[in-house]
Amino acid sequence: MNIPQQSLSATPVALTVELELAAVSAGLRPPPPLPRERAGLLAGAVAADLARILGDQVHDCGLLLPAALYDITELLQPGLSWVELLLEIYRGSLAGIGFLPQIIGLGGDEDFPVAALRPQRRPGSGPLLVLPILLVGERETVDRIQQQLEDVLLERGRTGIDTEALIRRDFGLNPVNLTYATFNDLSALLKIQLGHAGLDPLWQLLEGALFRPDQAVEIRLPEGNAFVGRGDEVYTTFHTFDQWAAGGGDTDSYCLWLRQQRLYETGLAAHGLTIRRLRSQAALESGCAGRLGRLAADYGIDSELLREPDHAAPLEGAAIVLLTEHATRELGPVAYTVLAQAADGTVLHMGNEYPLTADAARRVRERWAETAAQLGLVLHLAQPGKILVSEDGRHLLPQVDFSDGAH
């Protein structure tokens, strides 16, 4: 079959591996990829399954699979970049000759051979893990097979006995269900899962990124969160507590807003979307889709830490540096209030710092401990286990009673 490499087309297929919920709740990692020899055996078994399901025409296609299991978030990402990557690997296997249908399983005894395809193996991934498969061939053949996949895979997509045995033995898993699916099927499944979790707006943002990247999607949540997505970017406003309180909010409503904000940002980032945080809600509401890039330049938060005010005042002459961690049991650290005073009680600096990631919270504590040490002081870290606010409820306050929760 003398088909030029540049005219090759491809369609993705998913082998879904459904696990018991207990395996996810226990925080277990997905198993490592298979070694090369086992990867080849699995690819052969998968090819036999697809021939049984689709008929002889599938033999006109090549098959390539990475013998690894991925969380669905790793694969359902804007552009499905892994499809093009696998297609390039298949083209490379032809070594300059015309198209040749072949079965290829990618594996490695130690490290996965293609770094960009290495599964993340995050603890708690699942309960649906995915083994991605790519069918490669002449464009008309692939188009026919793609339509057939959409028509029959849901009904006839059970794996064969050999494939199931290999999955169970080589990955060391006891799946409750093993089926083939198209990526449209996976998207529909993700939509259902998010809907059951009360996260329909999150699906709307993901759906726009996956299927309508040229259109902007605007979302407003009842808790006050706002998101505008376009392509693989999502713009959102981050509120400090003082900003929130100035608008009439209290501590409880701020915690509800922050919980939703973290939940959505985590979900979007897991699917490969870039989060663009803005300082101004008014800017987000007034900006049309064409001005999103300008909004990020004018109001964007460029780091994983938001300071209020932006910079610390000079700390020469400080006699005490106090860091108060505002936190709740559910959210963990919410913000840090920094207070630096001279020996006579003069306030040299007071400000709030908002970590936007878990690592940023750790770095705040480490940085202020280093700053205190450079001043010849020991950092006083207060951890009252709650959010401390002024009597009027409009500002975060430091805890100045070192006898209670400070060290």
Which key terms come to mind for this protein?
single chain, 407 residues, alpha+beta, Nucleotidyltransferase, domain 5, 3 domains, six-stranded mixed sheet, five-stranded mixed sheet, 13 helices, elongated
Class per helix and strand makeup: alpha+beta
Radius of gyration: 26 Å
| Strand coverage percent | 15-25%
**Distance linking N and C termini:** 74 Å
Fraction in helix? 25-40%
How many strands, what sense, and barrel or not for the largest sheet? 6 strands, mixed
- Number of H- or I-type helical stretches: 13
How are helices and strands ordered from N to C?
EHHEEHHEEHHEHHEEEHHEHHEEEEHE
How would you sum up this structure, described in words?
This protein has three domains: 5-194, no CATH class; 198-302, no CATH class; 307-382, Nucleotidyltransferase, domain 5. The protein contains 13 helices and 15 strands. The protein has helices at residues 21-25, 36-54, 72-75, 81-93, 139-156, 161-171, 183-196, 200-211, 241-246, 251-270, 281-286, 292-299, 358-374, and strands at 8-18, 62-66, 70-71, 103-106, 128-138, 177-181, 217-220, 226-230, 233-237, 274-278, 305-308, 318-328, 332-342, 347-355, 380-382. Strands 1, 2, 3, 4, 5 and 6 form a six-stranded mixed β-sheet that branches. Strands 11-14-13-12-15 form a five-stranded mixed β-sheet, covered by helices on one side. A hairpin with a 3-residue loop joins strand 12 and strand 13 (332-342). The longest helix is centred in the middle third of the chain and has 20 residues, at 251-270. The mean pLDDT is 91.
